[in-house]
UniProtKB/TrEMBL annotation:
InterPro entries: CCB3/YggT (IPR003425)
UniProt key word Transmembrane helix: yes
Keyword Membrane: yes
Signal peptide range: none
UniProt name for this protein: YggT family protein
Lineage: Bacteria, Pseudomonadati, Campylobacterota, Epsilonproteobacteria, Campylobacterales
Highest taxon listed in the record's lineage: Bacteria
Pfam families xref list: CCB3_YggT
Organism of this sequence: Campylobacter majalis
Amino acid sequence: MILSTFLFAVANILHSVIQIYTWIIIISALFSWVRPDPYNPIVQLLYRLTEPAYALVRKILPKTVFGGLDLTPVILLLSLHFIDLFFVRLLLDFASSL
């Protein structure tokens, strides 16, 4: 009972973190289209939050730029969506079976 509740809580928190980070990636990608002031604190925060994940994707898949369009945010969004659908759901199913 306690383990099941704990796993439900972990799965829900993980789902929330994935959703928040998804929005951060979307906002960062939209900002990259308009070239905002790089000294703006919000732009710097978005850069610090997204660039490590972008660097990891670029390290695994070095060819992510096609025709001047960087597909790293799309790849990252698809990966996060897969993790949310597969692993979080798996964790929830495991918790409900306990």
